[in-house]
């Protein structure tokens, strides 16, 4: 078999390079400096994150990927303010983040719609908390519901919707607050492959049409490469920044690019970061043979 | 399809049949014992006392006594006792109990000034209601606070865990000493029996609140009181409602104990009184009545729950919607169901 010759993931076509140059000229929305998180356990402390620093520019799509146990969920929970860092700081528009707030919308992996509220009321939740009048909030919520294509389901309860639809409502609910960043913690992790692909395409469309910066946690390489401008690769134990990768795939993205050389090169590179060569040796099981001799299937 | 499939629901018709059978089966056993003279019937009911000096008409005597006495009468040449096989007086047949359910309400109390059956029932319901309401007014908010804040949980629950092992009835004498002999000590017993369980159960229910819901609300800007009102309360409401249904059942069971504290009152007094007069069908009728009231209350509460917490899978019936609108909207507005019907005709 011929070995596929891939370009380096660092080679960028002129228009891609131009995109990144412009992106970095934009203002920094979210910035972390030396974020460290230690969890107290019985025997001392476990370091989940160690000195994680990165910047996210306005309207950037930034993914965070890494092997399990690399602290990506911890990272996004700190960004949202649901947890506090042991050391280091998170700055949103230059101001430190100390607690959860509507300027950092969040979409969780599990379904977190309020089951007692209709789709419309769910999307209105943040607006009403912010003290908006009922009519104003309702009109605005309807716009966001239309944006995610669920205008036929405004009066449904979450339990009456499919998983994908629920996540679309969750996205609309977070966006209705017009946050500065949208934090997404493996939002499509619980969906089947087909729905997942559809949701990725919806998300890209929404992101293109709304002034929003997205921080997206995933463990799916394809998802990360397909969606992101840049990908932050974390190491595990402790979670450290391994590399910040600029994805050299041109926009607008489509699933046809999945076989482009620059796409494959990026994917192969991240793969090698997350699963270093030689790692595979570990996944052979000490199998006892229960088939007849000579009856091999491979 | 078979009737026996592991962990599979039966189809509607089979299920209905079984539900009806579950009531008919005990009734059938009771009827067989009551109406077939050769099954059980350990006594003889005297029809004609004959020459016997010991028995009288209508008396129930054991079969061996009956035979001995007749042997004696035969030997002395007198006319024998005649009788029919009968069950003890404490086991009246179903039809007698069913008629008693009706007639017990119509029967004047034996002593003037004693309460009628319906007065006894109302008295019992009132005692349960006050006890349960008092307990809930304090217990529900406290339980919820315990479920939300570890502060309240640790401040109260360890002691309540200990206290609930002291059965409420043992406080009867104390309650009378402190509160006198009227209804107050009875309400106190129901309160003690319900309150401590209530706080613990509701605290536990509140703790089941999925934390992602709280976190999601926080990232949407809710905090403090808003978080409590807009997320915690609606999220736990259907579960607390279910708890309350179960707790109300417990309060009912404490009623019987509470009613003999101090002076005997209410349905328990009625039952004891009827047992004294040996009118056992009235005793059964009263017991049946307690069961029916309990079942009825629970069914009404279940119906309210289905209508109130629609998102848990129920549907709001138009009758309930009308009730809600009757209470909540101005009098001059028409009911929405009327509006809908009207629009369709236009």
Read across the widest sheet of chain B, the strand sequence of neighbours is: 2-1-3
- CATH hierarchy: architecture of the largest domain in chain A: 3-Layer(aba) Sandwich
Major beta-sheet overview of chain B = 3 strands, antiparallel
Overall pLDDT score of chain A: 91
CATH architecture field of the largest domain in chain B: Orthogonal Bundle
Oligomer: heterodimer
Largest beta sheet: strand ordering of chain A: 6-7-8-3-9-10
What is the distance, rounded to the nearest whole angstrom, between the alpha carbons of the first and last residues of chain A? 18 Å
Order of helices and strands of chain B: HEEHEHHHHHHHHHHH
User: Structural class of the secondary structure composition of chain A?
Assistant: alpha/beta
Largest interface between protein chains, with number of residues from each side: A-B, 30 and 22 residues
CATH fourth-tier homologous superfamily of the largest domain in chain A: P-loop containing nucleotide triphosphate hydrolases
Total count of helical runs of at least 4 residues of chain B = 13
Q: CATH homologous superfamily of the largest domain in chain B, by name?
A: MetI-like
How many domains, in number, for the residues of chain B? Answer: 2
Rg over alpha carbons of chain B = 28 Å
Mind explaining what this structure looks like?
- The complex is a heterodimer of chains A (298) and B (346).
- With 298 residues, chain A is an alpha/beta fold.
- Chain A has 2 domains: 1-103 and 179-298, 3-Layer(aba) Sandwich (Rossmann fold), CATH 3.40.50; 115-178, no CATH class.
- Helix content of chain A is 33%, strand content 21%.
- In chain A, the strands form 2 sheets. A 6-stranded mixed β-sheet of chain A has the order 6-7-8-3-9-10, with helices on both faces.
- In chain A, strand 9 and strand 10 (241-246) form a beta hairpin.
- The longest helix of chain A is centred in the C-terminal third of the chain and has 17 residues, at 193-209.
- Chain B has 13 helices and 3 strands.
- Chain B has a 3-stranded antiparallel β-sheet with strand order 2-1-3.
- The longest helix of chain B has 35 residues, at 224-258.
- Chain B has 346 residues and is mainly alpha-helical.
- Chain B folds into 2 domains: 12-88, no CATH class; 106-315, MetI-like (MetI-like fold, Orthogonal Bundle), CATH 1.10.3720.
- In chain B, helix 10 runs antiparallel to helix 11 (280-308).
- The model of chain B has no long low-confidence stretch (mean pLDDT 90).
């Amino acid at each position: 078999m011929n070995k596929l010759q891939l370009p380096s993931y660092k080679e960028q076509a002129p228009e891609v390079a131009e995109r990144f140059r412009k992106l970095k000229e934009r203002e920094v929305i979210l910035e972390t400096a030396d974020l460290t998180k230690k969890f107290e356990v019985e025997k001392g402390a476990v370091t989940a994150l160690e000195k994680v620093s990165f910047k996210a520019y306005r309207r950037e799509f930034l993914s965070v990927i890494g092997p399990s146990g690399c602290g990506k969920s911890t990272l996004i929970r700190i960004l949202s303010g649901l947890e506090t860092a042991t050391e280091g700081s998170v700055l949103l528009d230059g101001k430190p983040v100390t607690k959860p707030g509507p300027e950092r919308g969040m979409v969780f992996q599990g379904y977190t719609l309020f089951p007692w509220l209709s789709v419309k009321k769910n999307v209105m939740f943040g607006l009403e908390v912010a003290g908006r009048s009922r009519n104003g909030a309702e009109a605005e919520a309807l716009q966001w519901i239309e944006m995610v294509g669920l205008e036929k389901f405004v009066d449904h309860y979450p339990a009456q919707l499919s998983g994908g639809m629920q996540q679309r409502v969750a996205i609309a609910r977070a966006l209705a607050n017009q946050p500065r960043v949208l934090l997404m913690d493996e939002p499509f992790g619980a969906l089947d492959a087909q729905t997942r692909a559809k949701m990725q395409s919806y998300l890209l469309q929404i992101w293109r049409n709304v002034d929003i910066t997205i921080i997206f946690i995933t463990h799916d390489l394809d998802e990360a490469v397909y969606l992101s401008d840049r990908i932050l690769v974390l190491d595990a134990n402790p979670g450290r920044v391994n590399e910040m990768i600029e994805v050299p795939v041109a926009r607008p993205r489509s699933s046809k690019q999945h076989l482009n050389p620059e796409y494959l090169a990026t994917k192969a590179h991240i793969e090698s970061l997350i699963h270093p060569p030689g790692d595979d040796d570990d996944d052979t099981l000490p199998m006892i043979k229960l088939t007849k001799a000579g009856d091999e299937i491979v | 399809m078979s009737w026996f499939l592991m962990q599979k629901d039966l189809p509607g018709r089979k299920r209905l049949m079984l539900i009806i059978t579950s009531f008919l089966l005990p009734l059938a056993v009771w009827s067989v014992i009551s109406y077939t003279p050769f099954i059980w019937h350990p006594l003889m009911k005297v029809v004609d006392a004959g020459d016997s000096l010991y028995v009288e008409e209508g008396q129930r005597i054991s079969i061996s006594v009956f035979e001995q006495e007749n042997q004696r009468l035969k030997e002395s040449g007198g006319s024998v006792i005649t009788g029919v096989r009968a069950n003890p007086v404490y086991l009246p047949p179903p039809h007698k109990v069913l008629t008693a359910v009706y007639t017990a309400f119509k029967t004047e109390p034996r002593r003037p000034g004693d309460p009628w059956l319906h007065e006894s029932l109302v008295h019992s319901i009132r005692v349960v209601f006050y006890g349960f309401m008092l307990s809930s007014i304090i217990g529900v908010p406290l339980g919820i606070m315990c479920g939300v804040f570890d502060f309240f949980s640790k401040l109260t629950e360890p002691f309540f865990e200990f206290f609930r092992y002291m059965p409420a009835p043992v406080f009867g004498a104390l309650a009378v000493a402190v509160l006198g002999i009227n209804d107050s000590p009875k309400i106190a017993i129901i309160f003690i029996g319900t309150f401590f369980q209530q706080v613990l159960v509701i605290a536990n229910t509140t703790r089941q609140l999925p934390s992602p819901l709280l976190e999601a609300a926080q990232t949407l800007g809710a905090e403090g009181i808003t978080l409590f009102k807009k997320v915690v309360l609606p999220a736990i409401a259907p579960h607390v409602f279910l708890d309350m249904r179960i707790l109300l059942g417990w309060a009912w069971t404490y009623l019987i104990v509470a009613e003999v504290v101090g002076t005997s009152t209410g349905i328990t007094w009625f039952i004891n009184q009827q047992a004294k007069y040996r009118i056992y069908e009235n005793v059964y009728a009263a017991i049946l009545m307690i069961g029916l009231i309990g079942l009825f209350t629970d069914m009404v509460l279940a119906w309210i729950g289905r209508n109130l917490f629609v998102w848990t899978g129920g549907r709001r019936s138009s009758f309930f919607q009308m009730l809600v609108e009757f209470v909540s909207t101005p009098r001059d507005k028409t009911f929405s169901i009327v509006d809908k019907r009207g629009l369709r005709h236009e």
